[in-house]
Amino acid sequence: MAKVTIDGIEVEVADGTTILNAARQIGGEVVPPAMCYYSSLKDTGGKCRVCLVKVTQGSAKDPRPMPKLVASCRTPVMDGMVVQNITSPEVLEARKGVVEFLLINHPLDCPICDQAGECDLQNLAYEHGAGKTRYEEERRTFEKVDIGDKIKLHMTRCILCYRCTFVADQLTNERVHGVLNRGDASEISTYIEKAVENDFSGNMIDVCPVGALTDKTFRFKSRVWFTKPLDAHRNCTKCSGKVVLWSKGDDVLRVSARKDEFGEVKEYICNECRYDHKNMSDWTIEGPRHIDKNSVISQNHYEKIDMQKLKLDIERQIQFQKGKQLPETNQSPA
Amino acid sequence: MQLTNRSKLVVKKEMTFAEKIYLPAILSGVVITIKHLFRKKATVKYPEKKREISEIWRGQHVLKRDDKGAERCTACGLCAVACPAEAITMVAAERKKGEENLYREEKYAATYEINMLRCIFCGLCEEACPKEAIFLTDRIVSTDYERNGFIYGKDKLVEDVNERIDVTVRQTPAVLAFKEQKKLSHNK
């Protein structure tokens, strides 16, 4: 076990845990954002750089600070490590820069994009980015590609997080798509536009943090904030069958896997559940999906409050506020 | 209990003879009416004479077209989500090949409806619009006998290619500065 202090909050985690996962055990505001790291996919992380944090004390044995900001999703904790995330202005400044870099080639076509409203990049830019762009050059553009008949690829919107290729590697039997070319010209592609036809290929839509991979059956049907998310399940032989139905009236517009509070899917669903069961009668409805109150989707969305959970959440926030008032333990050498 | 000094105690007493014949009371009323005939009128005869309105009057909406005549609206739904009266509904559709001169972006509003009975003319829709598509104009929404007539579809909202509606007074300096940025794809 290792004891780490993140933004003044002490937590004890198993050896080999990354800083990001240690922060997630604390939860709340101290969790660094992550665009490429995905806990349920192996080897993800280390690409987008938005989870950068400052390590002001390497470990109990060697208390020297780390020379540069480190990617928290790839750095394991050491006993006695002291980490600064939102309490360090340097980290916030660096994160702002990273967001600007991620947005350099992003087309900012949110009014058209189906991902708008549930887009990780949109949230990230809103929370950590600057309001204006300084970029004046031509943005890179790609033609839109149909990957199979169910998935649309807008390479222009891609931030090259490689999550979808890890889905292809780890969830499906044979990998038929990957990243071609280098640098600015890098492009997610299938070899000779071969359709992705695996039972779990649809999950690349859910893992995509931006609107690069979108569900063609939902294309332009409705903006997500006009749909009602419902938890539902059905007996499925291929997957757990636990999904979210995005409905409008009695119509199921889209079926997606359930994402946790960090926007990650834990139980992947099969393509049959995703595409072929768009009737309310196919599903057992559990109730409204929990939507974060800061999300635009929570507009006109009503759900039952779990008072016990709410109490815990408030207690945690109070604890966090107290933690913020104790910066002496991890003051940076100014 | 007396709450204010203005309250009057009501006393039911026998009326005098002058009060009983009512004539003085009626005459004084007529005098007041005649006095009002020569006063300045508070109303105007509306359709013939129009009252002066503010430069930034918020009246009937218009869906603008761009310089080439293509519809600017891309059915992003931000106006509808900003609308406090929930007056706006829309259905999006994908632009097909050959319709580039009709719709500016790859997605467009197939139907766009504003319920003018619900609308409170607050102007939040034009503030929310990222595409410079919806504006409130100085036109007044006309009356109707039926409720259906107040649901304005694209036929009433989209401006005519030949009869453009001037909204320059409603464009704030920030908006105009934004439009100057030719690097942004939709300003080209």
Automatic annotation (TrEMBL), chain A:
Pfam families reported in the protein's UniProt record: Fer2_4, Fer4_Nqo3, NADH-G_4Fe-4S_3
Coiled coil regions in record: none
Cofactor: [4Fe-4S] cluster; [2Fe-2S] cluster
UniProtKB keywords: 2Fe-2S, 4Fe-4S, Iron, Iron-sulfur, Membrane, Metal-binding, NAD, Translocase
2Fe-2S ferredoxin-type domain ranges (all copies): 2-89
Subcellular location, record wording: Membrane
PROSITE patterns: 2FE2S_FER_2, 4FE4S_HC3
Molecular function (Gene Ontology), one example: 2 iron, 2 sulfur cluster binding
Major site of localization recorded for this protein: membrane
Gene Ontology cellular component annotations, sorted alphabetically: membrane
Keyword Oxidoreductase: no
Domain 4Fe-4S His(Cys)3-ligated-type span(s) in chain numbering: 90-129
Family: Belongs to the complex I 75 kDa subunit family.
Descriptive protein name: NADH-quinone oxidoreductase subunit G
Organism: Ohtaekwangia koreensis
From TrEMBL, chain B:
EC number(s) from the headed UniProt entry: 7.1.1.-
Cofactor(s) the record lists: [4Fe-4S] cluster
Bilayer topology: Peripheral membrane protein
UniProt-annotated binding residues for [4Fe-4S] cluster 1: 73, 76, 79, 129
Keywords of the record: 4Fe-4S, Cell membrane, Iron, Iron-sulfur, Membrane, Metal-binding, NAD, Quinone, Repeat, Translocase, Transmembrane, Transmembrane helix, Ubiquinone
GO molecular function: 4 iron, 4 sulfur cluster binding; iron ion binding; NADH dehydrogenase (quinone) (non-electrogenic) activity; quinone binding
Location of this chain's protein in the cell: Cell membrane
Positions bound to [4Fe-4S] cluster 2: 83, 119, 122, 125
Pfam family of the protein (one): Fer4_7
Cofactor annotation comment: Binds 2 [4Fe-4S] clusters per subunit.
Keyword Lipid metabolism: no
GO biological process, one term: aerobic respiration
Recorded GO CC terms: plasma membrane
Family matches, as PROSITE patterns: 4FE4S_FER_1 (PS00198), 4FE4S_FER_2 (PS51379)
Location of the 4Fe-4S ferredoxin-type domain: 64-93, 110-139
InterPro entries: 4Fe4S_Fe-S-bd, 4Fe4S_Fe_S_CS, NADH_quinone_OxRdtase_chainI
Gene3D superfamilies tied to this protein: 3.30.70.3270
PANTHER family documented for this protein: NADH DEHYDROGENASE [UBIQUINONE] IRON-SULFUR PROTEIN 8, MITOCHONDRIAL, NADH DEHYDROGENASE UBIQUINONE IRON-SULFUR PROTEIN 8, MITOCHONDRIAL
Oligomer and partners: NDH-1 is composed of 14 different subunits. Subunits NuoA, H, J, K, L, M, N constitute the membrane sector of the complex.
HAMAP family: NDH1_NuoI (MF_01351)
Family: Belongs to the complex I 23 kDa subunit family.
Chain's role: NDH-1 shuttles electrons from NADH, via FMN and iron-sulfur (Fe-S) centers, to quinones in the respiratory chain. The immediate electron acceptor for the enzyme in this species is believed to be ubiquinone. Couples the redox reaction to proton translocation (for every two electrons transferred, four hydrogen ions are translocated across the cytoplasmic membrane), and thus conserves the redox energy in a proton gradient.
Name used for this protein in its record: NADH-quinone oxidoreductase subunit I
Organism: Ohtaekwangia koreensis
